[in-house]
Amino acid sequence: MPSLFDPIQLGALHLPNRVLMAPLTRGRATREHVPTERMATYYAQRASAGLIISEATGISREGLGWPFAPGLWTDEQVEGWKPVAAAVKQAGGRIVAQLWHMGRVVHSSFNDGRPPVSASATQAPHKAHTYEGRQPYDVARPLDAAELPRLLEDYARAARNAMTAGFDGVQVHAANGYLIDQFLRNGSNHRDDDYGGSVENRVRLLREVAATVAGEVGADRTGVRLSPNGESQGVDDSDPEPLFTAAAAALGEIGVSWLELREPGPEGTFGASDVPKVSPHIREVFHAPLVLNSDYTGEGAQAALDAGVADAISFGRPFIANPDLARRLREGLPLAQEDPKLWYSQGEEGYVDYPAAA
Fold first, then answer.
1. pLDDT digits over 52-100, tens only?
2. How far is Cα 51 from Cα 94, in angstroms, rounded to an integer?
3. SS3 label, residue 357
4. 131 catalytic residue (yes or no)
5. What CA–CA distance (Å, rounded) separates 58 from 8?
6. Are 116 and 107 contacting, i.e. CB atoms less than 8 angstroms apart?
7. Catalytic residue among 42, 178, 195, 354, which?
8. Distance between CA atoms of 345 and 343, rounded to whole angstroms?
């Protein structure tokens, strides 16, 4: 079996190791969602990852509801991303852009008071992070089927913009209770049209988005993230195994070159740790490289590769305080601990000031 430090091919991308950097929202862009200079420093520091998956990046104003998160729908945002991608490549790394539509988790204050959109008229639990502090989520407006071509063009434009900005590819964010996940799971999808009801119908939007993005950048530069777990931000499904197995099979038919699965452990950020794992069933139907994520140690990651349940592992929070995580895992060096209070602050502290190991 391969080690974490053996190379792997993800479609067109040749990775020198199997320690991937998972997407991590950090809140260091501008209020206009334009990447900043310190983001180039941050990502370049972590270029020894086999692949960097960027923080979740909005495909449209409608779809982005996180303070100081970056976007990919304006020329200014594209220009802001160019030095970030260039810095990673200059440091010898590879980076893909994660394309994000948050759906019902967008607070109306981000969109001139208009309600968020989702599969159905539902409301996320808890409160949204906004520029004015924490506020209750709004009841979402169901997307009309006639609006979905416009949504697909938003994804297509963001994918094109990612390549213009210098990214090596893209990942479609279809996980964690955001828009595509809201369509996938029957706890949030109450539709009675071609996008609701049966598993085939609920997978339809994911299939269309993945095919659209692959058509823009090539299937060999397209990945997808799913979270085949229990509840994520109030989104759940009554029978996840057939749903996510069908979703993975559909992605395999499209030919996406890799699939990342988030299945949290007991301390997962979005909860849902005690449900049966769906990834073994996905492994049976999706034959391109499979990347597993969430709560892995170096030993646990290697064990997953040894057992043949994954081809690579993506690490999230360990990369925050350990920019040289791959080296630390390889050499058995101790890991530094990040300060959660600084996860989403706008400064350099807790962002670019974590040193590499001596």
1. 999 999 999 999 999 999 999 999 999 999 999 999 999 999 999 999 9
2. 5
3. coil
4. no
5. 28
6. yes
7. 178
8. 6
